[in-house]
Amino acid sequence: MADSLANRLSRRERQIMDVLYQLGEATAAEVQERLPEPPSYSAVRAMLRILEDKGHIRHHEDGPRYVFAPVVARDTAQRSAVKHLLRTFFDGSVEDAMAALLDGAERKLSRDEIDRMSQLIEQRKREGR
């Protein structure tokens, strides 16, 4: 299921998932009010139904309202998306992906960001991975 999160969402579905991850859970109206250039309420309901059919979200009833929430935790979905990105565009190479990210950065990295990345690399070296 997690792999499908990486590659089976439209732009609008990803926006809806972002709203649900930010809020934890939300009604269709709450999702609609947080979307850029929001579609109609019925369109949001339809997209939520599609996301539920795809297995990305679930709902529970709160009185007359349906409340929607992601099925997979955000960090799990992020890891799945990164794995998919690595396989699809970088033939599994973390080095090539990191080089592309650093070359394509729209802003200069801060000293703290560079230090944190260096610490992560050193930790992986110590762990032998």
TrEMBL record:
Keyword Cell wall biogenesis/degradation belongs to the record: no
Gene3D superfamilies: Penicillinase repressor domain, Winged helix-like DNA-binding domain superfamily/Winged helix DNA-binding domain
Keywords annotated in UniProt: DNA-binding, Transcription, Transcription regulation
Similarity remark: Belongs to the BlaI transcriptional regulatory family.
Listed name of the protein: CopY family transcriptional regulator
Taxonomic source organism: Roseisolibacter agri
GO BP, one annotated term: negative regulation of DNA-templated transcription
Single GO MF annotation: DNA binding
